[in-house]
Amino acid sequence: MHKFITIEGVEGCGKTTQIQLLYAALQAKGIPTLTTREPGGCAIADKIRAILLDPAHTHIVPTTELLLYAAARAQHVQEIIRPALEAGKVVICDRFTDATIAYQGYARGLDLGTIETLAQLACDGIKPALTLWLDLPVAVGVERALRRNLSQDSSAEARFDQESIQFHSKVQLGYTKLQAADPQRIKRIDADASPKQVAERIIKVVTHHLETME
């Protein structure tokens, strides 16, 4: 499963843009590639996504939030990710288990052991071989996210964008600790640069990973 690549980072770090650029670069090399996202990626998980990201749902308790993410992931893994990997495709996923640890663990304060147990159940042995952490100052990312919501009318999925800077700082701390604990898998990408510069950094890391794994 060495072709499973995930992209992580705080809100507004540029994941969507970079996934599009990485997909185009791999396609240009003739590498069969699938892009997907969490929460979501398939019809059932997309319905759960709508619940999780709806800004009107401020009353969702952290445990409910965690269980909904796990449910969406279980469906996504079995319906989309596993079949694509077994077909030999590179799978690029916008967020995965590291996001749950960062958001629901470090930011919400839920037990990391419980999160790990749920991840094992939902993922059924599927783990990313390479994770790209787009590291961006929290204040910059949140400002970008809010500006994006205004320009693209994406406020229907803005629940996390409305969280405090303190919340997003805890998310950033979570990613920092995850990368320190697993530097072989999680590669830090400085995302405080132009999209083209960030894309060049990402493509270099991904190309090296795929060539090494062959």
Summarize the structure.
With 214 residues, the protein is of the alpha/beta class.
Provide a descriptive summary of the structure in words.
The chain is an alpha/beta fold and 214 residues long. It has one domain: P-loop containing nucleotide triphosphate hydrolases (Rossmann fold), CATH 3.40.50. The protein has 8 helices and 5 strands. Strands 2-3-1-4-5 form a 5-stranded parallel beta sheet, with helices on both faces. Helix 1 crosses helix 8, helix 4 (97-107) runs antiparallel to helix 5 (112-123) and helix 4 (97-107) packs across helix 7 (165-181). It is globular. The relative contact order is 0.21. The mean pLDDT is 93.
Q: Class in CATH? A: Alpha Beta
Number of strands: 5
- Major beta sheet, specifics? 5 strands, parallel
* Shape category: globular
Q: Which class do the helix and strand fractions yield?
A: alpha/beta
Gyration radius (Cα, Å) is: 16 Å
Q: Can you name the CATH architecture?
A: 3-Layer(aba) Sandwich
Strand residue content: 5-15%
When the domains are counted, the total is: 1
- Give the low-pLDDT segments: none
Give the overall average pLDDT.
Answer: 93
Which series of helices and strands comes N to C? EHEHHEHHEHHEH
| Strand adjacency order, main sheet | 2-3-1-4-5
Number of helices: 8
The CATH superfamily is identified as P-loop containing nucleotide triphosphate hydrolases
